[in-house]
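Objective 1b: paired records.
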Amino acid sequence: MYRVEIIEEQEKWNQVVSGSCNPNVFGLFEWGKFKESSWIVNRVAVYKNDSLQGATQILLKKAPGVIFGWAASGVFVTNYKHLEIVIEKIREHYAAKALFHYLRFNFCENSTGDSSFRIRGLDLLKASSNPVNSGFTVRFKLEKAQEIEKEMSSNNRYYLKKALKENLVFKKENEVNAEAFTSLHNLMTSSKDLQQIEINLETISSLKNSLAENLNMFSVYKDEECLSSCLVIRSKKQAFYYLAATSNKGREVYASFFMIANLLKELANEGITDFDFSGITPYDKNAAGVNRFKMGFGGEVINYLGEWEISNNWFVSKLFNWLVAKKL
């Protein structure tokens, strides 16, 4: 006998996520808390009798007769053999709530192997025609005392050597300084004429307050001036590179190369084994520099399984994909 439960308790939910075979940081209760200001957040678990089969943290928007759902965490399962029934029970749950439903899941697993085989074989899912994300990332399997420099490209090693001559200091901040990070980030976007990706203090403060100890800030200083910073989301042995900023002075002394080389070592020493560098794309020519930078530290380029959807109405599906394409 299967049952669906909406979980409200933080400790219980995080135990559900950590008990799955495919956890990720976007399943954290704290991440959902961050999103509550603009979404309805449901944490849905599927049980067979009292045995957990799987779960998802899904962000919802509602209109009369319609439910739209976005699950950045994908679907957690205790075993991939449960995947089909878990997705079906989640679908049934929302089908009973509205005349029309559209649910999209972003699977963070590699697009090869058992998970890929099972997901691609499900008739109830189809690949999203307009994905939100590129589907590509750089992942690192970290080990203590790992010699990061040996894994780097010659280009990245060259700029790291230049940075090492600049008397830079790498630091894990005692707490996230939302105001300082926002200021540095928007100084960077302004200098690059990229005002469209500016951030605001309210959002970063909310991220800090929601994620608490799951969010860390790392910085690079020269003569006590902060030149580069990044925000990293953590959960147990996983870490995700969320956002970064470097000033013009920082770029002149290659502070970002220094920061990432030291960040990888620091995370490894703290027991992180899985680091997701995020944010690469083969589809945008303007991203070539970022791609080269991130791929040059020696991680593995991963093509996620990516975004898959369920809908009981073709027009609702077309509408949601059109909105995504328009970035609305």
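Objective 1b, second protein:
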Amino acid sequence: NKLLTEREVIIIASSSVAGAALLILSLALTIYLICAKRKQLYRRSQRLQQKLKTWSMRDPLEEFVQRESVNQVTDVSYKPTALVRMSTRRESHLFKIWNQSRTIKKLVFAGSMMELIQAASERLKLPHPDKIVLEEDGTEVTSDEILLACAGSILLVLQPGEEWEPSLTLDVNQLPPTFNNLHRHSTISIIKSLQNIGAEMKTVRPEAGGAVVNEGYDSLSDEDKISQ
């Protein structure tokens, strides 16, 4: 074995040191990349957890209310009259309206006194409707709440100068059961019965009637026949 020269020893030592340094550098770079990747994954997981947390705490109804409130606020600056009409709109009900003489009768939908008076002016051909009363007793309707409570009742629409008057129509079925009323009911029922009997007699054929008469004549005795 030959002894190594000093130059060769230096070269071998330097190459060993360079290899070790390169190994250490590669290890350090690998460790840095691993740490950077783990740090990136950690940040991503943190952001994902925050998003999941906000989504779980989010209320869909509250978001909808917030969006609607924002839309209404934006609409107020552009369409204030539409919002006012929407907020003041009432539910419509069906009403029977007559004029004072009870000759014109209409059905209308309305949700307030103003709407009903306007509809009465158009449907009943009244130029200046002034007052609304109940047809049965003349009670005046003075507010929207009372009007909605009277839905289904017959209402009279009066003009200035007109007053409520009771109806002249007499309903026999609504009269109290006095003697005169009972007598009137019985008379009407008797007349109807006689009319029905007359109608049935008209439907009997002449041949059938003659057969009945002959049969009755044959059943008489000889003395009765002679007397006839």
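The domain at 93-158 is CATH 3.10.20.10 (Ubiquitin-like (UB roll)). Strands lie at 93-98, 105-110, 131-134, 154-158.
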